[in-house]
Amino acid sequence: MSRFKIVHKTGFRYGVNVQASYNEARMLPSRDDGQIIFSSKMEIKPHPASHEYIDYFGTRVVMFEVLEPHEELEIVSTSVVELRDPPAREAEMTWNELATAIDRSLELKDAVSVSKRTAIPADLARFAKKVAAQGNPEQTALAICQHIHASMKYQFGVTGVNSNAAEAWAKKIGVCQDFTHLAVGALRSVGIPARYVSGYLHPQIEPRIGQAVMGESHAWLEWFAGEWIPNDPTNNVQATNRHIVVARGRDYDDVPPLRGVYAGAANSELFVSVEITKEA
Fold it and tell me: What is the mean pLDDT of the chain?
């Protein structure tokens, strides 16, 4: 097991006063079998009216509104999370068993529906179909993720937050959001349920206890083959005890850390910083 402290600071600078803002934040780690939440809190300035709820995908969401003039909105999420080692895997599923499971589950049916973000080009769909004919669902999913990792170059600044899988594949360049959209879309194209995961990844393979490092939000995926199996196609690894889950959804549109609107004529500038410390 590994224990981490995460301090995620974000918000908007407006330049001049805006009259009010209405927002929702997904910045608190998920409570599930793989994560123990020792503490988590969110501090917002100016102080808002707020409430927390769990969305359709099991993500903790804080909705809040600031109804006073302000030039800057700041949100700081501070959490301490312990990651458990995953349990031993069960027997691998066949394609027929997977199809039966999907028929019986609304959650899995949602996870095989292709969205605009995850629609993939014909050549990638052909590759996915080819490997699906040669192995079971888990073998297929792993081969698809490895192929995307090998085919894409990680480079920041070429794609944007609004990019989709097809645009990233055409350039063969992108960031973790693009790698994940491509993998999710390719898996869904052959009938494997897949969901987009966002959270944090400690950047060091062997983190030093007590050393605070600058990190960032990260994206990976989970596919279903009898159980939800994590994979990080950007780094070509199964999700490890350095991946901290915050949100799950169909694609990025379901999981942005901060989203909102404001009343006022000013432009806004987003700022973000993430600090991660391994505590045990």
Answer: 94
